[in-house]
Description:
Blueprint: H1 13-23, E1 32-35, H2 45-60, E2 64-69, H3 79-92, E3 99-101, H4 106-118, E4 122-125, H5 129-135, H6 153-165, E5 174-177, E6 192-196, E7 210-212, H7 214-224, E8 229-233, H8 240-250, E9 256-260, E10 263-265, H9 272-280, H10 295-301, H11 305-315, E11 322-324, H12 326-340, E12 342-344, E13 346-347, E14 353-357, E15 365-371, E16 381-387, E17 389-392, E18 413-416, E19 421-429, E20 435-442, E21 460-461, E22 464-465, E23 470-477, E24 502-509, E25 520-523, E26 527-531, E27 541-546, H13 551-558
Parallel strand pairs: 1-2, 2-3, 8-9, 10-11, 12-25, 14-20, 18-21, 23-27
Antiparallel strand pairs: 4-5, 5-6, 6-7, 13-24, 14-17, 15-16, 17-22, 18-19, 19-20, 23-24, 25-26, 26-27
The structure holds adenosine-5'-triphosphate (ATP) and magnesium ion.
Amino acid sequence: MTEETKEVKSLNFLEEIVENDLRENKNGGRVLTRFPPEPNGYLHLGHAKSICLNFGLAQKYGGQTNLRFDDTNPITEDTEYVDSIKADVRWLGFDWAAELYASDYFAQLYEFAKKLIQLGLAYVDDSTAEAIASQKGTPTEPGQESPFRHRSIEENLDLFERMKAGEFPDGSRVLRAKIDMASPNMHFRDPVIYRIKHAHHHRTGNEWCIYPMYDFAHGQSDSIENITHSICTLEFIPHRPLYDWFIEKLDIFPSHQYEFARLNLTYTVMSKRKLKQLVEEGHVAGWDDPRMPTLSGARRRGYTPEAIRDFCERIGVAKRDNLIDVGLLEFCVREQLNKTATRVMVVLDPDPIKVVITNYPEGQTEELSIENNPENPEEGNRAVTFSREILVEREDFMENPPKKFFRLAPGNRVRLKGAYIIECNEVVKDAEGKVTELHCTYVPESKSGSDTSGLKVQGTIHWVNAADAVPVEVRLYDRLFQVEDLAEAEGDFKDHLNPNSLQVVQAFAEPSLRDASGKAYQFLRKGYFNLDTDSTEDRLIFNRTVGLKDSWAKDQKKK
Ligand code: ATP
Ligand code: MG
């Protein structure tokens, strides 16, 4: 880019914070962020936003990013999720400085808790969960102190150690921070910081039967790692004073928390809990179902990491919750695939019409050379067979067409993509009147690339050679939900599932697709597609990644 054309992009508020910190030489000019998923599900597009932000910010300012698994809840977490998260972050194009686990810090966190007890800032509470909840008060009414709040430091230490030793059953006791039962911030009303849970943990096994709560684990984990900028979503704003309180009382490295608006997309849900329900109740084929807003679903559908990063860049960083049009994501995918996809011809019709080219020699087959990608001549050409009998989509023919129908009709001329101009002379029907064949003649001098016919035709249609067309399955996807804003929709979110979100179509592909690989294809006039992982050697299956029509860009022009 030259100086004149360089776009001056204003900084987002997080970049402003980092630049300010760097100017003040805070943390010695060091920038260390973290991406902290809980391994209780697969990552979704909202996480992509967080990943791009955390890794992007560090990259921009010469810093680094840790991948930290927030695995303090043994019941819901699993190594399957850990592995998928690592694969997804890598796929998105990011590399972490260190792979870390909150569970690595269990011993340290336990020591932190004992320190709080010794400072008189934590106590063991024998109250039931219900009693603790009922003592909490409301935002406008102060809470009540627990009868166990004034235990001695010695007694608290003894009980906490015995909690750890496994002497007490689940739910019989908790450790609470001793802060202020009248605080206007509910999180300050003696929050529970440790609970008893006799459960197997995916990494620490049965070593622990007490587990720290989110608020006691997250900030301290940040601090242990010397994280400089701890970025999370807006719902954690009320937790921030507590985050700071623990760090201050424990006198440990002062990480700071900053909040941004989470990504919400139209026509989908973005919560692992809900996505898990869709998987477990069989509404989709799995976490990587191409209709899912998960990264594994997006990948399987043919979305590229470049397109997702571009999308995250375009939506920017907001401080207020909003709903993003999924059309923008599709626009980014289309933009990218337009540059990279190999163009091929597929007759997307289980019941195509056979076109017999009556003046083409019987038994002759020729190889046409058709370019793979007009956007990128370097991709060269491929050979496509052509002969006397070809297949076209039924909707590309009309016996009594309206005025501007530039496809096949009696007496009409069209160009067969990459081949010849043909003219439709005769319509053959069966006893029920259904069209079975079209008899056409071709113009030998009209071959694409060396057309000397002088004929002008308005329409070009795609086709496949009948003799060697490959039957394939094509999966056409629509929105997973029927309503735009699920947060506003009434009833259960699953009431709004789109019953027609998957349509399976049998189709006929040009033979080059026999060797289809993991790359992107544009089925001419149809959209962008990729080979699905369900494919076998003798059964090729393609996903429609996204259609060709760009409703989003059009809408923007209208606005
Ligand atoms: P979910 O509700 O889907 O389980 P979560 O926030 O509980 O999401 P975590 O695994 O705890 O999921 O999230 C890891 C990081 O990703 C957190 O920093 C979280 O704030 C961020 N994140 C999660 N969902 C979104 C979203 N929709 N937009 C932006 N960031 C998100
Ligand atoms: Mg969570």
